[in-house]
Structures are given as C-alpha cells and as structure tokens.
Amino acid sequence: MARSSYLFTSESVSEGHPDKVCDRISDEVVDLFFREAAKAGMDASQVRVACETLATTNRVVIAGEVRTSLDDKTMKSKVKSAARKAIRSIGYEQDGFHWKKAKIDVLLHPQSAHIAQGVDAGAGKDEGAGDQGIMFGYACKETPDLMPAPIYYSHKILEVLTAARKAGERNCEKLGPDAKSQVTVKYENGKPVGVTQIVLSTQHLDPELTSKDVQKIVEPIIRETLPAGWISKDTVWHVNPTGAFVIGGPDGDAGLTGRKIIVDTYGGAAPHGGGAFSGKDPTKVDRSAAYAARYLAKNVVAAGLADRCTIQLSYAIGVSKPLSVYVDLHGTGNGKADEAKLEKVLPEIMDLSPRGIRTHLSLNKPIYARTSAYGHFGRKASRDGGFSWEKTDLVPALKKAIA
Fold it and tell me: Is 216 known to be catalytic?
C-alpha cells in the first residue's frame, strides 16, 4: 500500500541560475536554426541541433553539432547574438557576467554522418530515434495543470518573483536574476494540504540587505502564490539562509546545459530516464518522447481514467518504433481501463515514432527557449505550438477506445 500521509519536497531554480542560463542559450540556438531554416526555405524536419553551453565569469562556450544548409560563418555570428540577447533578457549586467562584455566562443560543427545514417529516413526505412534511452511521463490531480504540487509551486514562486523583478514592482528590483526555491508539502490521505518548509535563496543587488530584509520582500509574494491556507504559523521559512548572496549567476558558479533534469520534469515525484532536454532538436527522443509521454499521461488523467499515471517509453537509435510502452496507474484507475489495455491503446491513438511525435505535437518549430526555465511541464499550450504536449485533446479518443 502506498503511504497516504507524508512530506515531499521539490526544488526549482530561476532563469538566472547558472545552469538555466546555459539551458536558455542552448534552446535559443535550437530556435535560431529553425527560424533561419524557414527563411532559407529549408525543410524544418531536416534541422539537426545538439547544442551544449558552458558559462562562467564573463565567458560562454557554445559547442555541439548541427546540420543545415545555412552558411556557417553567418550562423556563428547569429548564434553569438542570440546568446547575448538571452543573457540580457535574463537580466545580467553585473561586472562578472555582462551580456555585452562576456566573451562568447562558438564551437558548433557538422553532425556526425554515423548518427545521421541512423536518424534519417531512407529507402524503405522511416526516420529512426536519435538515440537509445528511456523516457517517462507523469500526471496527477494535485494541481489544475495535473502536476505534482511541490514542483508546481516551487516553479510558481520563482516565476512570480522574476516577473516582479523585471517589472520593478514590490521592491523586487533589489533582487538579482539568480534564485532557487524549495517547497516541502504535507500530504494527508494522499492529498497535498499544506507547506511545512519554504526555502528561497535569491541574489540581491544591494550588499547591505540582510536575510530578514530579503524575506520582507519575498514573503508576501510567496504567500499570495501558494494556495490559501497552506502556510500556517508552524511553517518554517529559510530565506537566504547563508546570508549575503550578491555574487550570483555564472560569475558565482559555472553553469552547464542539462544539469537540472529533475527541476525540468516532476521534481522527483516520478521516475526520470536520465536524458536532458535543452539544446536538442526533436529528433532526439530524450526530448520529444519525454514530451509525448507527458502528453499521454496527462490525457489519461484528464479523461478521468486515473488520478495518477506514469508512462515509460523506450527507444533504440535508428529504430523508429518504441521498444516498449509501460503504464502504471498507481492503483488509482477508475476500473474502465487497466494498464495492459492502455499499453495497447495509446500507440494506436498516437504514432509514437520520432516522426509521428514531431508531427502530432508540431515540434519542428522555434518553440524551445520558453521551456528552458520553470519546467517543461505544467505550462499552458500556446497558439503558436508552444507546449503542445500540455493539450488534453486526446481525451475523446481515449474514452472511445476504452469504452
């Protein structure tokens, strides 16, 4: 039997966290190549990008492999420009990390022909997966967007604080871009009912600010962000618990693409296959199949078939169809559809080949920079195709298939 009463904690990091700066730059590069390919009349399905970024004190290194028909010299300049714009948008204009002053090296090179031969379609062969691996999707009824409460509200705290900082509202202009949050949620009878511990560490621009000063700024906003009644007199606050936090971002700690995979997904409430998302075009199933697994799990829960759903997909490089589909309803199914039936039905209502996923979710678009902070899941689908994996448009087909 699963425990019904317990504490569970998840963390989030802001867009100014060193690793998230790198995720943002890498995803800006993916978006850039999609936009430039469209301008050149290139087939978007042929764009290949695998971009990694390292950031440290006034230095950014962008490396990886790409494949397009675009001019390399022109694209190198545009990649540098995209990186500077991303750093500026995040808000870094400090001595140790400045959007204008940082040195940026671009070390992108052509995609390996041996990888290409496994991914590309050929005579009698559909496009294969860009790599082997396992991907997980998860959904539950704990929040309106069917996400686990601890990670959902950890993200929301930082999103709201960042918006206030950029707008210069509520004294948040005194804060810097680098921040981390952590929320410990109390569960009773399997449902989230309150918060026992709140951790918020945020960079501040005024070195004279104390931890108490920072708490006065952030506490009212955090209280408004969490559900009513979740914070009690017994809730413990840890705001900038180490004291001063003036040196932040890549100047304080080097960043790398792909190091915040639990922050990006479900905050530890569900399994993770180990693959990062940012900097990868959607032929890489680390990204696209994880989106598909979330999409399917969310639709299962939205259809009322279960209160919780975990889905695992597995792939082999160069092979188009998933090797396995696994469904776990955690004992919360409504009796109409068991796991075995869903494992049969889901691949019938959605083509889970790499090409099928990209087509169904319209992933061959410049929609990735916005995913680089505050989670890839639990977001609102937008009209231009962003966060398409958050739609619940499979609900009618699911209900019909299991009727």
Answer: no
The answer to whether 252 touches 58, Cβ cutoff 8 Å, is no
98 is catalytic: no
Selecting among 24, 155, 156, 260, the annotated active-site residue is 260
pTM above 0.85, yes or no: yes
Q: Is the pLDDT of residue 131 over 90?
A: no
Q: Which of 284, 287, 298, 308 is catalytic?
A: 284
Whole-number Å distance between alpha carbons of 176 and 212: 16
Gyration radius of the chain over CA positions: 22
Q: What is the per-residue pLDDT across 281-321, written as a single tens digit (0 to 9) for each?
A: 999 999 999 999 999 999 999 999 999 999 999 999 889 99
pLDDT digits (tens, 9 = 90+) for 37-92: 999 898 999 899 999 999 999 999 999 999 876 667 788 999 999 999 999 999 99
Q: Is 19 a catalytic residue?
A: yes
- Closest C-alpha to 383, from 375, 373, 371, 391: 391
| Known active-site residue 280 | yes
Q: How far apart are the first and last CA of the chain?
A: 29
Given a cut of 80, is residue 111 above it in pLDDT? no
In this structure, what token pair is assigned to residue 192?
């989230």
Q: Could you give the strand order of the β-sheet that contains 255-256, starting from the edge strand earlier in sequence?
A: 103-110, 59-67, 48-56, 255-256
Alpha-carbon dihedral angle through residues 139, 141, 143, 149, given to the nearest 10 degrees: -70
52 given a catalytic annotation: yes
Out of 59-73, 143-157, 245-259, 338-352, least confident range: 59-73
